[in-house]
Amino acid sequence: MSLTFLGRLARTCAQPSRSFRIIGSSRYLATKPAPSFPVIPDCPSPTCNCAPTPALPEDLPIDHKTTLNGLISNYAQQVLVCTGKDDWPSKIETEDEGDNLAADLRKLIGPKGVYSDPFHNISVLNASFPSTPSVTPSTSAYILPEFKYVPNIPRSSSEALEGLVKAYLLPETLHPAHGESSDLSDRLTRNTAYQQFIPGVRDVKNVFVLICGHGGRDMRCGMLGPVLRDEFRARLPEVGVEVLEGPANETEEGRSDNGDVRSARVGLISHIGGHKFAGNVIIYLPPQMKTRDGKRHPLAGHGIWYGRVEPKHVQGIVNETVMKGNVIKEFFRGAIRRDGEILRL
């Protein structure tokens, strides 16, 4: 079976298995299933003294006409490479200043990589989070929505890089479209034996607020991203969520009490698509998360994609989406569940 055919088939099969709609009348309940999460139409007006929205270049307007729903990348997992930088070249794999984990990973799992699977796309992004210090050259990474932290990926070891892919990034089972191929199954499915090459991987329980700030790719994201990051950092503590800074460590990651959220990481990330919808924000809510009244958070284990976010919207997003679990329809581009299913309204 050719890779070209598999690619075409993957794009067809990658469509979500369910259709989510906002129900306008009870007579449609039999044919149009309600969303699996609560939805509100608009973001509440702010009561805070929000930062102003920066003026963008006239030749780079924000698209306020296109429907956002469904404009989400098809991926099963995202790897956030902790670079400690706020911006990167237009194509992050061309970065030639020191270590480039993103480039090395894409050689393995990109379109021509030995572990490439058109039915299990892995998104590799750079992030502004710093890596955990190490005595040997290494890089840290987060894996979402699996909520894993990899503190040390030795950069001089090809075994460690392949261990990361084989132990944590590949699917547990082969997609049925591949057919019954033992060779493909051995190569393209997860193998926990490889965990020995990448020790120290641990679960994290933080909220993650990821904002596209890739100015090297598009100035709309480059200008809005840092302002939104500062606004989220200001608004989250107002609802009792500590914003963690600096390298991750075992004592702080996921500080919580019975699932009650206490901490978040807010950072800039590289290009995720849709510059014209800046600001672009992805919010990951940990699977153990509960609401303040002790109930399971409606969005626990989900990653929510928003577009056209301005500083004046951040307070509403924190209150409604982070704290209550309400998806705000006017910003919603799509969502991903922990099992990799892509959701649309």
Automatic annotation (TrEMBL):
It comes from the Eukaryota. InterPro entries: Aim32/Apd1-like, Thioredoxin-like_sf. Coiled coil: none annotated. SUPFAM superfamilies: Thioredoxin-like. Belongs to the AIM32 family. This is Altered inheritance of mitochondria protein 32. It comes from Coniochaeta pulveracea.
